[in-house]
Design a protein that fits this description.
- This protein is of the alpha/beta class.
- It has a single domain (2-103, 148-318), classed as Rossmann fold, CATH 3.40.50.300.
- The protein has eleven helices and twelve strands.
- The strands form two sheets. It has an eight-stranded mixed beta sheet, with helices on both faces. A four-stranded antiparallel beta sheet has the order 2-1-4-5, covered by helices on one side.
- Helix 3 (106-118) crosses helix 4 and helix 6 (154-166) packs parallel to helix 7.
- The longest helix is centred in the middle third of the chain and has 17 residues, at 184-200.
- The protein starts with a strand and ends in a 17-residue tail after the last strand.
- The structure holds adenosine-5'-triphosphate and magnesium ion.
- Magnesium ion (MG) is lined by residues 44-45, 94, 176.
Length: 328
């Protein structure tokens, strides 16, 4: 349904080219919930924005391909693109709440989609808006359709944003940190809503998060991102129970420690690399407890280790041998 082939994105800066995305390969299939997880700055939002055709200068695609149902997205004519976005692929943004216009009622904003894309009348659009609000479980939708965004709680506003993203029945929904701004209970409800919608419409979902426990709850498969690379990917259950990349293991260990011991485990020590001067070898080597000279000089290639599982690490075989990989 959606495929990225060796996607590369760079930002032109005063200090040189920042290599934000460095050869990303991934695919989302119909009916699949794919999680993209990684630390802040790893390139999750840039990947999503590039797929949505929203990469702004000074960012540009430096290489690779994006395909939607086999069609080359980057080469599409504007008209074809407009049909693709909104209808085939839609997105819930990281700062979703600012996606709502404060001067229009929510009913107007949801209804507008049906008016513009489906030629619905004002009246029909309002009926559709109420239907969508019901669907994302906004209580008393028939009355609240005339309210303005500020009259809703954060969680309810997020539901409205999701309703707008689902309105035109997309085949794929990209949700970029859809719950980061919400408290834990509301977060769980929104994730459940996304999961239910994804399943009941057999839709593809690309869920972007920095939180591996969200990945565990919601997704079928996962791609772990580090410094603009997918360092590991595969079925969620398998990757989380048997990580093959030391970075993935670090993400999992820090969550498990928090849950089991209530301790604040040091996250993986160190900082992600400077995108203006990426290390010569593995980008994770400077922080990796297993790295040796080979890792520091030779970038690992993406290799397939089982059906649908890939890892980019010279030391994959050792990752689960050491009980206390990050404890020391
Ligand atoms: N306009 C820009 N100019 C230069 N660099 C940029 C620009 N936009 C993004 N970047 C760089 O691209 C990298 C990836 O950013 P991105 O927003 O995709 O990270 P992210 O994984 O979504 O992080 P977060 O979890 O904080 O949302 C970052 O290191 C960022 O500094
Ligand atoms: Mg982001």
């Amino acid at each position: 349904m959606l495929q990225l082939h060796d996607l590369q994105v760079e930002f032109r800066t005063n200090h040189g080219e920042a290599k934000a995305i460095n050869g990303v390969n991934l695919s989302v299939h119909q009916g699949e919930a794919l999680g993209i997880v990684g630390e802040s700055g790893s390139g999750k939002s840039v990947t999503a924005r590039t797929v949505m055709g929203l990469l702004d200068a000074p960012g540009y695609v430096a290489g690779g391909r994006i395909e939607a149902d086999g069609e080359d997205v980057l080469g599409m004519a504007p008209k074809q693109r407009r049909a693709l976005y909104g209808q085939q692929i839609s997105m819930v943004f990281q700062d979703a709440l600012s996606a709502l216009n404060p001067v229009h009622t929510v009913g107007h904003q949801i209804g507008e989609l049906f008016r513009v894309h489906r030629g619905a009348s004002r009246k029909a659009a309002k009926v559709k808006a109420i239907e969508m609000m019901d669907r994302v479980r906004i209580p008393d939708a028939a009355r609240r359709v005339n309210d303005y965004p500020h009259q809703f709680s954060g969680g309810m506003r997020q539901r409205i944003v999701i309703a707008m993203a689902l309105a035109l029945d997309p085949q794929l929904l990209i949700a970029d940190e859809p719950t980061t701004a919400l408290d834990v209970t509301v977060q769980a409800q929104i994730l459940e809503l996304l999961r239910e919608e994804q399943r009941s419409r057999d839709m593809g979902l690309m869920l972007i998060t920095h939180d591996i426990s969200v990945v565990r709850e919601v997704t079928d498969s996962v791609a772990v991102m580090y410094a603009g690379n997918i360092v590991e990917s595969g079925p969620t259950a398998e990757v989380l129970s048997n990580p093959q990349h030391p970075y993935t293991r670090g993400l999992i260990d820090s969550v498990d420690a928090r849950v089991e011991r209530g301790s604040r485990l040091p996250a993986i020590p160190g900082m992600p690399p400077d995108l203006l001067s990426l290390p010569e070898g593995c980008p994770f080597a400077p922080r990796c407890p297993l790295a040796d000279d080979h890792c520091r000089t030779t970038k690992p290639l993406d290799r397939s280790i089982a059906e649908n599982r890939t890892v980019e690490c010279h030391k994959a075989e050792e990752v689960n041998r050491d009980e206390l990989l990050y404890a020391g």
